[in-house]
Amino acid sequence: GGVCHHVTGECACPPGWMGTVCGQPCPEGHYGNNCSQECQCHNGGTCDLATGQCHCSSGYTGERCQDECPIGTFGIQCAEICQCMNGGKCYHISGECLCEPGYTGVHCETRLCAEIVYGLKCDKRCPCHLPNTHRYFRYFCYICV
């Protein structure tokens, strides 16, 4: 891929390549003409050998892969949507859910306690009078302290 100089016969390598016959790609962490520029990608991102543009690893975004995916997204280019429920937190790399106390399941979809109790051991009685509590608001009874 290099251009041979008409007088000296030396190869002028295209960006991303080096060596006397332009047969070697830039070493990891370098890019550009003669591989003279240092890659500035973070969090495991790799840079294009010719341009230096970062290709971010799963869970990261930004020009230099310096930012975690925005809340609610994960994966390559933060293109996946988190499926965590009931206040569960989504891990920005894999989308795995970290459930709030009192919930379990892949997406935190399962309550550990019955409707009339709450707490880490489901040993506290909910003070709400359930027959008079609208179903939507019952959730707040579960998190009484």
Automatic annotation (TrEMBL):
Keywords: Disulfide bond, EGF-like domain, Repeat, Signal
One cellular-component annotation, GO: membrane
Species this chain originates from: Micrurus lemniscatus lemniscatus
Domain EGF-like: 1-23, 31-66, 74-109
Protein's name in the database: EGF-like domain-containing protein
Transmembrane feature ranges: none
Family annotation (Pfam families): EGF_2 (PF07974), EGF_laminin (PF00053), hEGF (PF12661)
Highest taxon, organism lineage: Eukaryota
